[in-house]
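To: structure desk
From: M.T.
Subject: fold request, one chain
Message: Could you run this one when you get a chance? Sequence is below, nothing fancy, just the single chain.
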Amino acid sequence: MELSALIELQIERDRRRGFQVDFASDSDRLDQLMRDLVGLLGEVGEFANLLKKVGLAHTTPGYVAPSLKEANPELREELADATIYIFRLAALLGANLEHDLLQKMSINDKRYSDLER
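Reply: Done. Structure tokens follow.
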């Protein structure tokens, strides 16, 4: 499935669930952007917190936490949650995320060309 189709699917589900995705004013859109940004940061924080614990268990004898293999499903779920917020933010901005990603990859290809092997 293409990225644009995934984004449309998520936004339609948000709409069916009563989450605001259509806005009458920039003020309302800005408010939702702020809320979704907080949601994104929360999900990234949950990912980081679990990864921190995995790292501590890996490097600190006696620290009890899941291994990377054990934590992998939850880490992937947190990334999926973060991706949903990124999809929402992109939709709120009217972005074409596929186009924007390809454009940024091209910029990075030029920026980091000296590192190519």
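Reply (cont.): Helices lie at 3-16, 26-59, 68-92, 97-111. Let me know if you need anything else for the meeting.
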